[in-house]
Amino acid sequence: xxxxxxxxxxxxxxxxxxxxxxxxxxxxxxxxxxxxxxxxxxxxxxxxxxxxxxxxxxxxxxxxxxxxxxxxxxxxxxxxxxxxxxxxxxxxxxxxxxxxxxxxxxxxxxxxxxxxxxxxxxxxxxxxxxxxxxxxxxxx
Length: 140
Fold this sequence. Notes:
Blueprint: E1 2-3, E2 9-10, H1 41-68, H2 76-89, E3 100-101, E4 109-110, H3 111-134
Antiparallel strand pairs: 1-2, 3-4
Helix pairs in contact: 1-2, 1-3
């Protein structure tokens, strides 16, 4: 070892370095380090929000497909999907002058449900951005 002008220890540049030797002097010893892999509460909240909005988007897609294919609304499953998604589509009815397009037969293109999908996707992005701001990992 050598010392600098202020008395601090400086490594000799010509001395060999043993990469397997730690500060304890024991070869191959690695000091224990603990890293928390648990997600933060904000990360959990983001996952919950993403999951809930994902389920809603899936139900709206199923609704659009059922209406487009002219599904029988007397069927319990079809009626259940309509009843579940009606409250979520209701705020978007009337956004455009046309809410339903009847291309042929009993098929219906539900414009309000398509607008609802876009609206809820934007809302999910806004909530996710707000939660990301609160997440300490993204703080600069």
